[in-house]
Specification:
The chain is an alpha+beta fold. It has three domains: about 1-115, Gcn5-related N-acetyltransferase (GNAT) (Aminopeptidase, 3-Layer(aba) Sandwich); about 135-280, Aminopeptidase, CATH 3.40.630; about 300-385, 2-Layer Sandwich (Nonspecific Lipid-transfer Protein, Chain A), CATH 3.30.1050. It is about 25% helix and about 30% strand. The longest helix is centred in the middle third of the chain and has 18 residues, at about 160-180. The chain starts with a strand and ends in a 12-residue tail after the last helix. It binds coenzyme A. Its EC number is 2.3.1.-. It is an enzyme of class 2 (transferase).
């Protein structure tokens, strides 16, 4: 078995059919093969490795060069996607091999972060990934938004098709990338698919010409559902402006469905709003994302509280050694100075990633077996890495 990197034009005959078998209804229509060619521009920046034997493609794994906000720093992130093995070649370790090489290459090319949606979380936990919150869906009736109809809100709305609104949408996701912990976006070559697909409506909220919120959505039928994608807003005024627009669909649709970040609490948006909030995690098909640090450089200079702790990193191919983490200056400093009496912890890559992404308390890292964290080290780590809820946004 050999592993090699595909050129873009090789995809339709190699990786795309494997991915279609793994992720789509099949056998596929004959025209599907034609459609593959039209996707190539969106994959220009994607790195795809394949495992081959006797000229046949056995397995494939890709990484999209993305960017992600980690506690305020915007860093290159490898978005792992399109992982699939031929049904006759599964359980032979092909994906394990591909992933190892793919992450080596992405790390060497300057991606200190990586994220993915796992087929099985435990498989990727052994690769050092830790779970992030899944985006929630909120479902409610437009009638319950009635109180907003009379509200006098700052700003105005623009409405049209998502193709025409793409530039505004992209610019606003760039703003979210700069401002929201965990937020990740595609490279431009991939993101423009939203413009070209042009298959949604788009609502854009603006105040004094500046975009403060966007929502793309579809309506399935009269009396049916208005299904929104992620509700992206800069503040509660922008959110109210968008909800006010949705309220005007009271005589048109029965339900409104929106994707929201895990830290949104729609039950507090309005009085008398009956709302169902759900995060469904199931295998296969509905996974919560995972992420990890691939390089310690990601941590240097991050805002941190005044903690001081020695961590020994174990069991990982990409993160190793003993490091002193110090937040005395308000920014995280790392050094190899491992002497002196400082509280000490042992962490796996998943354990350190859980703390950096803010998803687990040090005690949970200990309980989950992602390290050994004595109480004194836990107190220091808690100061260095206060809990934060990341919002990944990108779906890949
Ligand atoms: C999920 C999928 C990608 C796994 O690919 P794979 O090449 O079979 O993966 P690997 O062989 O590297 O690892 C899968 C399992 O087989 C095990 N395995 C590896 N070598 C093995 C061997 N010689 N004998 C038995 N099992 C083996 C691995 O350890 C792993 O199981 P574990 O996590 O319990 O240890 C493949 O089944 C697939 O294409 N599924 C459909 C699409 C899909 O779900 N894609 C992932 C979306 S992100």
């Amino acid at each position: 078995m050999t592993i090699r990197r595909l050129t873009n034009s090789e995809r339709p005959a190699t990786s795309f059919p494997l991915q279609a078998y793994a992720f789509e209804a099949s056998p596929m229509r004959a025209e599907r093969a034609e459609e593959f060619r039209s996707y190539l521009p969106y994959h220009e920046a994607t790195r795809t490795l394949v495992a081959e034997e006797g000229g046949e493609t056995l397995a494939t794994a890709s990484a999209i060069p993305m960017r992600q906000n980690l506690r305020g720093a915007v860093l290159p992130m490898a978005g792992v996607a399109g992982v699939a093995t031929h049904p006759l070649a599964r359980r032979r370790g092909h994906v394990r091999e591909l992933l190892r090489q793919l992450l080596d290459e992405m790390r060497d090319e300057g991606h200190p972060l990586t994220a993915l949606y796992p087929f099985r979380a435990s498989f990727y936990e052994r690769f050092g990934y830790v779970g992030l919150p899944r985006a929630r869906t909120a479902v409610f009736a437009p009638a319950d938004l009635a109180a907003l109809l009379r509200a006098d809100l700052p700003g105005e709305l623009a409405w049209g098709r998502s193709g025409a609104g793409y530039a505004d949408h992209r610019a606003f996701t760039e703003r979210c990338l700069a401002e929201r912990h965990g937020f990740a976006i595609f490279p431009e070559t991939r993101a423009v698919r939203q413009r070209d697909d042009d298959d949604r409506w788009q609502l854009t909220a603006r105040v004094d010409g500046e975009t403060v919120g966007v929502l793309t959505y579809r309506i399935d039928d009269h009396g049916g559902e208005l299904a929104g994608d992620d509700l992206l807003v800069a503040d509660p005024y922008a959110r109210a402006l968008i909800l006010q627009f949705l309220a005007r669909h009271v005589d048109q649709v029965e339900r409104i469905r929106l994707r929201i970040a895990a830290d949104e609490l729609p039950e507090l948006w309005l009085t008398d709003l009956a709302v169902h909030v759900e995060a469904r995690v199931a295998r296969p098909g509905s996974s919560a994302p995972m992420a990890r640090l691939l390089a310690l450089d990601a941590l240097a200079g991050l805002p941190a509280g005044p903690g001081r702790v020695r961590v020994e990193l174990t069991g990982d191919r990409w993160l190793a050694g003993t490091h002193l983490l110090d937040g005395a200056t308000g920014r995280l400093e790392l050094s190899g100075d491992a002497t002196g009496s400082v509280p000490a912890a042992t962490l796996t890559a998943a354990g350190l990633s859980a703390l950096a992404y803010g998803v687990l308390d040090p005690a949970e890292v200990d309980v989950r077996g992602l390290g050994r964290v004595p109480a004194d080290a836990a107190a220091e780590l808690r100061r260095l890495f206060p809990r934060r809820l990341p919002y990944l946004f990108a779906d890949f």
